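Standup notes, structure subgroup. Blocker cleared on the coenzyme A input:
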Amino acid sequence: MSTIVREALPEEHVRLGEIVVAAYRALRAEESGRYEAELRDVERRAREAVVLAAIDEATGRPIGCVTYVPGPDNPWAELLEPGEAGIRMLAVDPAVQGQGAGTALILACVERARAAGRRRLVLHSRPMMTTAQRIYARLGFRRDERRDWEPVPGILLLAFALALEEPAPA
Ligand SMILES: CC(C)(COP(=O)(O)OP(=O)(O)OC[C@H]1O[C@@H](n2cnc3c(N)ncnc32)[C@H](O)[C@@H]1OP(=O)(O)O)[C@@H](O)C(=O)NCCC(=O)NCCS
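Run returned:
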C-alpha cells in the first residue's frame, strides 16, 4: 500500500477519531470513557495543535493519524522543555496496520520538527504499545526515564526522545 502523509482535512476528522478509538481499543488498554472521548476528538486536536493524516493513495481514504505538538506552550504538550516538539495519539486503522503507515506518520513528525529547528522530539507510550515502541527504536528514539510519569495512578507512561541536533563537525 502506498501512503501519503499531510494535514488532516476537516471532513476527515470524524473518521480519524473512529480510527484512533478502534486502534486503542485493539490494545485492550481499558481506557476510561473520558479518555476515549478525548481520543475521538480529532477536531479539537487539529484546532489546537497539528493533526497529520496518513492517506491510502489508491483510495484517497484516511487510514491513520498523529498529533504533532509544536512546542512546550501548546495545550497538548506533555512535559516538553523549550526547543522541543512532541507527538501524541498515534494510531492506524487496525485493518491496515503492518504496511508502513505508522512509520510514515512518525517520519512526517520528525521532518516537521527538524524543519522548525526543534532540538528534540519527545513522546510517551504505555508499556503495552510494543509495536509503536519498535518503530520509535528503529527511527532512533531512546528511552528517557527521567520523564516517565503516571498521570493517573496505575497508568504508567514511558518517555522516548529523538535528538534532532546535527552532530558537531569532527
Ligand atoms: C503503533 C501503530 C500506529 C503502528 O502502525 P502501523 O501502520 O502498523 O506501523 P508500521 O506498519 O509502520 O509498522 C508496524 C510493523 O509492520 C512492519 N511493516 C511496515 N511495512 C511493512 C511492509 N510493507 N511489509 C511487511 N511489514 C511491514 C514494520 O516493520 C513493523 O514491524 P514490527 O512490528 O515487527 O516492528 C499501530 O500499531 C497502532 O495504531 N497501535 C495502537 C495505538 C498505539 O499503540 N499508539 C502508539 C501511542 S505511543
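Discussed briefly. Residues 23-24, 27, 90-92, 97-103, 123, 125, 129, 131-132, 134-135 surround coenzyme A (CB under 6 Å).
Next: hand off to the docking folks.
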